[in-house]
Amino acid sequence: MVSSSAAGSRQQVFVLVGGTGDLAMRMLWPSLAMLDQDGFLADNLRIISVAREDCGTEVCVDRIGNAVTKRVGESLEPGTLARFRKRIVHVALDAAKDDWGAKLKAELGDIEHLDVVFFLSVSPSLFKPICEHIERAGLNKAPNRVIIEKPIGRDLASSKVINDSVAHAFDESRTFRIDHYLGKETVQNLIALRFGNVVFEPLWNSQTIDHVQITIAETVGVGERLGYYDEYGAIRDMLQNHLLQLVCLLAMEPPSALSSDALRDEKVKVLRSLKAITVDNVKDHTARGQYGPGFADGHPVAGYEVEKGSPSNTETFVAIKAEIANWRWAGTPFYLRTGKCLPSRSTEIVIQFKPLPHSIFGTEAKANRLHIRLQPDEDISLTVMNKAPGLTAEGTHLQSLDLSLSLIKAFEGNGEKAPRRRIAYERLILDALQGNNAQFVRRDEVEAAWMWVDGIIDSWTKTSMKPQQYPAGTFGPVSGYRLIERDEGRTWND
Ligand code: NAP
After folding, report:
1. Which residues span the membrane (predicted)?
2. In ligand 1, which atom is closest to the CA atom of 150?
């Protein structure tokens, strides 16, 4: 947490480096505009867009206006865009040039009275030169802080290089590493659900929970990201960050407070408790796939290698049976999977409870299941057994019913308009502006996650475990099903 007394009455400036890029246009500008509309930005907050392109403020602001309208047009109120546009200035600066810092400083003005948040929405290869420019120009002093995006490296060693270069300019408390999953409403709700209720905590362990499944499924292929993706694959692109962050929130011990260090101390313990996957068990505990020809996202797909134009050892699907070696979770596996060109776009968590120890209802009693959907809809439901209504000659019959905890459905049920579904970056940008880093990833978390993932990749290499092809539009290779079905009575919740 950045000291609020340090930020105090200073004027806030949000410097969006890479302000003309894809992430900025699709996510960051619309998020900032919505924060403005909802009154979360200080009246005098300024926004500086930085990129090499010398398009001028007028043109840049027009593009931003279009991007905001495209993304959140239905929610825009009259006057929002006009007010928002006035906050923005575009400055053309090339990070490869030495005058970057001095020119930005001139644009910023009286730095002693400013509270500057830098968002580096650029390639990670630019983090080091940009942080050096910021430091040389003296723009790195507290309370100023920096937000960086994934990927934080492609293994432990390269993540340390990136983290070291950022740490030279900004201490850890002022380094905000975004994992946008942490800004999603339902992900934040996991903390509320687990630690705001007394009913779940006594059941939240291997005595009662049979296993946990987490799926992040995408229907699209790699598209224009092929160059980047071929270097990373599904395990580095999705599992090392988003999937493991979800594991942390589900598996961590109750923190002593909602403060950033209390939360992150508990998350990192989970990552450090993940059982290493080695050459001895990698074939049983992991599955790698690569999409081949098929039909996905409404289109025929030629297959990954055809799209690339050459053979590739990159996986577009990964499934892992993760085990957490501690008292709470020993014996309860977490099955994780993610992939591209799958049949549906969804992110969901299934907490599968154990069957009744003794059923007085024969085989009709099904084990409870907590189902948390993050995408495409945000919804939480708990399946519970009920008596089927009515009278039958054979006596009582059971039926399984969903107890819905969906906020949206609750509003609809009351005849009220459901709240707007926020972009995950809105929460995170607001937290960064306020100096609250609880929902950002700490360096030790990134490194513990890489350490575990590096071990898996190393075992794939040592055992020559290549990705198995799966037809585009299916839920991954056969080995992905075997991974879970090998354990009796367990199947993916497709
Ligand atoms: P992008 O579309 O390529 O945009 C990059 C931005 O950086 C542009 O504004 C570009 O403008 C600017 N830039 C490039 N070289 C520069 C230089 N030498 N000096 C100053 N500015 C420079 O990239 P992106 O997709 O927005 O991604 C940005 C970051 O977010 C990356 O770290 C990426 O890995 C991460 N990310 C992106 C997404 C996504 O959905 N796009 C998702 C997750 C993470 P000029 O060319 O005019 O300089």
Report:
1. none
2. 44
